[in-house]
Specification:
The protein is α/β, with parallel strands linked by helices and about 325 residues long. The chain folds into 2 domains: about 5-75, Phosphatidylinositol 3-kinase Catalytic Subunit, Chain A, domain 1 (Ubiquitin-like (UB roll)); about 85-310, HAD superfamily/HAD-like (Rossmann fold, 3-Layer(aba) Sandwich), CATH 3.40.50. About 25% of the residues lie in helices and about 20% in strands. The protein is built from 10 helices and 11 strands. The strands form 3 sheets. The protein has a 5-stranded parallel beta sheet, covered by helices on one side. The longest helix has 14 residues, at about 320-330. The relative contact order is 0.13.
Length: about 325
């Protein structure tokens, strides 16, 4: 007699009981049952803690081989088709999405073209920013990508923590002392929100994100060599928030083309991939946290070359500042 298999799927903050299976059913049958409950298609499902000999089981693997206990909780990542439409469907004026180009900013001169400035003005006017926290007076601005910058969204793992870039929370905690932080991803808002929950960013007590921007805040531009690409123009933020300008804004992204509109404000971060192999040796965020701290007192970021950030040396204090500091110390002793 076949034994029944009852499991619970945790997804998007909710739990779904799957009780229509037997141990002779396959993983694909399980995925179809999950599809019926959640409407997430089988090919979109990532079952994080479902393992066979330390690896994700194939779809034809029988459930009996997994030795699941009754009521076993499966952690799932996956998006509904309507939630990822913005990320998977190119805009009408973008005939082709170019995959991971490392475009040098010298190849295009686009920052002041009227057609792109008009697109930015439309985003400033029409794009609605949902404020999560208020900007703080006197803070500079850090704009962060997600995929391959903070999170490896393609490797397999049992928990979201294993896909998170090492030292993420330490990095954000350090940056928050001097910078307001914005997350800007070329995906849908729903997916951004889910990722920030998964990584514990949206609820962390040591720092706060002021808002998220999704793919609808991006614009398409034409480059002579690669044709039409989508970019993240910082002018959208600057047009909505007067306290942020090119003088006090820096953007981290693993793809250079995303900051083609503002090459002087972009820093191309090394992508975080193959998390299972690299999570124990990746130190990129620690080094970048130091860089952000070192440049926090620069009056104008336009004077910096972020391409050579690893060679940056903080300016030494002037004698006048040293005397002032020494005087303050003497008075307090």
């Amino acid at each position: 007699m076949e034994n029944a298999v009852d499991v619970i799927v945790k997804w998007s903050g909710k739990e779904y009981k799957i009780s229509s299976l037997s141990e002779n059913d396959s993983v694909y049958t399980l995925k179809n049952a999950i599809h019926k409950e959640t409407c997430v298609r089988p090919e979109r499902q990532k079952l994080l803690n479902l393992k066979l000999k330390g690896k994700p089981p194939d779809d034809d693997c029988p459930l009996s081989a997994l030795k699941l206990k009754q009521g076993f909780k499966i952690m799932m990542m996956g998006s509904l088709e309507e939630d990822i439409a913005d990320a998977s469907t190119p805009p009408e004026d973008m005939p082709e999405v170019i995959n991971d180009l490392d475009i040098e900013e010298e190849e295009v001169a686009i920052e002041s073209k009227d057609v792109y400035l008009a697109k930015i003005e439309r985003r400033i006017r029409d794009y609605k920013v949902n404020m999560l926290n208020e900007p703080r007076e006197g803070k500079k601005l850090l704009v962060l990508d997600i995929d391959y910058t903070l999170f490896d969204h393609r490797s397999t793992a049992e928990t979201g923590y294993e896909l998170m870039r090492p030292f993420l929370h330490e990095f954000l905690t350090s940056a928050y002392q001097d910078y307001d932080i914005v997350i800007w991803s070329a995906t849908s808002m729903k997916w951004i929100e889910e990722k920030m929950k998964l990584l514990g960013v949206s609820t962390h007590s040591c720092y706060k994100i002021i808002f998220y921007l999704d793919s609808s805040a991006m614009i398409s531009i034409h480059t002579p060599k690669y044709g039409v690409v989508q970019v993240k123009p910082l002018g959208v933020i600057w047009g909505k928030f007067e306290q942020y300008t090119s003088r006090n804004t820096i953007m981290f992204d693993d793809i250079r083309r995303n900051f083609l509109m503002n090459p002087g404000n972009g820093l191309k971060i090394r992508p975080f991939k193959q998390a299972h192999l690299n999570r124990d040796k990746d130190r990129e965020l620690l080094r970048l946290a130091k860089y952000l701290k070192d440049i926090a007192h620069e009056e104008d970021f336009n004077s910096l070359d972020h391409r050579h950030w690893e060679r940056y040396k903080p300016k030494k204090k002037s004698n006048k500042q040293d005397v002032k500091d020494g005087s303050s110390t003497s008075q307090g002793s």
